[in-house]
């Protein structure tokens, strides 16, 4: 009787893929450890390759874009004086704050009148602030934003390791303060220069959809995924959809 019960129990556990002895438990634990080691190796390899791509591509971009940087700097100074760069604190991986670089596309003192414009926020969700016809933007600034030239100094952020070429866009500390627990998961990876929603409509995409696309990227990220997003970034920049 007991033997038949044991056999039935063994068959049941076999169906459920559960261990029936200490040896089975040890084998299962060994398999789990092996899978964990393989997963960690794959993740570390991905991060190493991704970092190499970041360094090589950002260095090449900086060297090639030096003439453009000089021309843009001169035009900004002619229209609205110094400074040329706009430096802003942003939140990176695991909540680390870093200095985020852009060519200045707004008039000096633009941050001081932002509160007066909050009622005209055209970004859905209330977390980020966007206006299609922001009165603070200079004439040269509109051109820079139209073709994302204002973002080019961020190649220095990529080179320093604050950004990656591909990843969720880095938020402001004030935006993170309004995040839900789900939205904070975007901070589990290094932010990027471009991302899924940047190539799919940029500021025209509602905030909740931006979060969904960022989470989709985090769960499926890989080298080929990054390459596809970078290739899609080129036409997105040229056509300027959602850039304002």
Q: Tell me roughly what share of residues is in helical segments.
A: 40-55%
Mean pLDDT, all residues: 83
Overall shape: it is elongated
Classification by helices and strands: mainly alpha
Order of helices and strands: HHEEHHHEHEHH
- Which regions contain 5 or more consecutive residues with pLDDT less than 50? none
Fraction of residues in β-strands: 5-15%
Strand tally, please? Answer: 4
Biggest sheet overview = 2 strands, antiparallel
Keywords summarizing the entry:
two-stranded antiparallel ribbon, mainly alpha, 244 residues, single chain, 8 helices
Task: Please specify the SSE layout and strand pairing.
Elements: H1 2-16, H2 22-80, E1 85-91, E2 97-103, H3 114-117, H4 139-146, H5 154-160, E3 164-166, H6 173-176, E4 192-194, H7 207-220, H8 223-239
Helix pairs in contact: 2-4, 2-5
